[in-house]
Amino acid sequence: xxxxxxxxxxxxxxxxxxxxxxxxxxxxxxxxxxxxxxxxxxxxxxxxxxxxxxxxxxxxxxxxxxxxxxxxxxxxxxxxxxxxxxxxxxxxxxxxxxxxxxxxxxxxxxxxxxxxxxxxxxxxxxxxxxxxxxxxxxxxxxxxxxxxxxxxxxxxxxxxxxxxxxxxxxxxxxxxxxxxxxxxxxxxxxxxxxxxxxxxxxxxxxxxxxxxxxxxxxxxxxxxxxxxxxxxxxxxxxxxxxxxxxxxxxxxxxxxxxxxxxxxxxxxxxxxxxxxxxxxxxxxxxxxxxxxxxxxxxxxxxxxxxxxxxxxxxxxxxxxxxxxxxxxxxxxxxxxxxxxxxxxxxxxxxxxxxxxxxxxxxxxxxxxxxxxxxxxxxxxxxxxxxxxxxxxxxxxxxxxxxxxxxxxxxxxxxxxxxxxxxxxxxxxxxxxxxxxxxxxxxxxxxxxxxxxxxxxxxxxxxxxxxxxxxxxxxxxxxxxxxxxxxxxxxxxxxxxxxxxxxxxxxxxxxxxxxxxxxxxxxxxxxxxxxxxxxxxxxxxxxxxxxxxxxxxxxxxxxxxxxxxxxxxxxxxxxxxxxxxxxxxxxxxxxxxxxxxxxxxxxxxxxxxxxxxxxxxxxxxxxxxxxxxxxxxxxxxxxxxxxxxxxxxxxxxxxxxxxxxxxxxxxxxxxxxxxxxxxxxxxxxxxx
Length: 687
Known about the structure:
687 residues, alpha/beta, 5-stranded parallel β-sheet, 27 helices, disordered N terminus, metal ion binding
C-alpha cells in the first residue's frame, strides 16, 4: 500500500473535532496601577510613560515627604528627604514636567496626598488647563478623573503627614469635596484609608470601624458646611471612595471586604437617607499589604502579594475598582522598574488569562463566608458606636483613644510573631534557605534615589522664583490668608495661587499662620504591651535593672524620629517593648530635627539614642545627630539606628560611629532590647 493511501485511510478514520464551547463574556477588569514616583519630575514622568506602555491603566503618584508635609526643598526640614519616597512637586513648573506628554483629560490619576491635597489638585487642574488651551477651564475640569487621598484622620493615627489641627484639616477636605462635586464631577475628592490603619496594627474589626467613622466625620462636616444642597448630597456620597489594605489571611480579608460593602450600604441609607443604590455602592481601591513583606527570603513576598490580590478580586460583589501591588523587594528598598513590571504582570495574568471575570460572585451561598462577614459586621458596629459615643472620629483622635488601640493591637501581633504563634515563613519558621539569585547583589536588587535630586529641586525652586511676578504671588497669598479666616471655599484662592506661581511651601506656610500646627498623640504611654512575655523578657528586664544599678539609676532610652518620615509604627513598638523591658523611655513622636533630638538626649541625660528612619534619609540625618551629640559634649552616648537600610549603608553608618543597625529582618524586639543593653554596657566600659 502506498504512502498516499495510508494518509487517506488515516484522514478518513480521524474523529470529527468537537465544537469549542463559547466562553462567557468577561467583566471589565479593575484599574491597574503601580505606586510610583521618585527623584525628579522628569524621571517619574519617564517611569509613568513606560508603565502605561506596559499596560498599566491608571497612574498612582507618590510624592516626596516635603511635598506631602508642605515644605519646599529649600527648607531645612526637607534636608535628606527630597525625592526619596516620591517625587518633589514644589511648584506648577514641576507639575507640568511630571505629566509632560500624558493627556490628563483622558487619564485616571490617583494622588497619594493628604495635608496638601487641595494644593496638588489645584496644580493638577491648572496643568490640565495648560495642556488644553483651546478649551474653557471649566470644560477641562469636567473631563478630569482620578482621586486625591485626602484622608487626614488616618495621618494622625498612622502615616504622620498631617500639618494642621483636625478641625482645620476637615475644613480643607469639605471645601475640596464641595468644589469637586460642582466643578470636577468625575473626581473622587477623598479616598478614606483603612490601608494605613492595618499597617499601624489594626485588626479587621478596627480597620472597618475606624475608616467608617472617618467617613461619617467627613460627611457630617460637608453637611454642616452648607456648601452642598440636599439634592447634590447624594453625589457627595457617591464620590466617596476608600483605599483598603489586604493582608495574607485570605478568607478573613475577603470577608472584610464583603463586610465593608454591607456596612457602607447601611450607613449611607440609614444615616444619610441615600436612596439611589448606585450612590451607596462601596467603591474602593487597594494596595495590598506592605507590612507583611519580609527582608528575609524576600522571594516569598511574591506569593504573599498574589494571595492578597485574590482577597480583593475573587468576590465579584466586593471586587476592588483599582489595584496596585507592591514589589517583592520593598522591604529591601526602592523597587526598580522591572520589579514594578513584575507586580503589574501578576494583575494582568489574573485578569486576562484566568476565567475569574467570567462568573458571578463565587462565594454567594457560602455558610463559612457569611458567618465570618456577620462576625466582622457586628464587631465593627460595636466599635463604631463606641467611637461615636466619644464624639466621633475627631474626638477619638484628639483623646488618643484610636491611636492607643492601634499601638496595642500592633504590640499583640508582634508578640504573637516572636512567640511563634503567628508563623511568618522564612522569618520565624522555615528559615533554612538556599542563596537567592534575586538578592545575590543586595545593593543591585533595589533602585537608589538620585543623589542629585535635592540639589536639582532646590535649583528648580530658585529658578522658578526668579522668573515669577512677585506682586501677583503676594496678592494671591494675601487672598488665601483672608479666605482662610472666614468660611469662603479655599479651593478658589488655591487655584489662583497656583496660577500666580506660589510654591508648595508658601501655600502651606500661609495656612500654618492662620490655622496653626498640630502634634498627634503617640499612643505609647497607655498602650498594652507584652508585660508577661515569658522567660526571655524576664532575663532582659533583669539585665536592664542590673545595668541601671551599676550606672546609678534607671536606664533611659530616647527613641527619635528625625526628618519628615511619619511612619512611626516601628518606633512605637520599640518604645512599648523598651518600657516593658524596664527602660525609662523618652519618645516625643515624629518629625523632629537632629538638633531637637540632640537637645532632648542631653536634657534627659539618656544612656542610648535610638533613631528610626524609614524614608531612606538615614545617610543624611544620622550623621547630623552624631555630630550634634559630639558638639554638645555628649559624643559618648551610643546611637543605634533602625529602618529600611541597605547593607552597604549600614556598614558605613557603623564606620561613622553608630553602635548597631537594625533592619526588618531583626523582628525580635526583646532580642533587640538585650542588644541595646549590651551597647550601653560597652559604651560605659562595664564589660
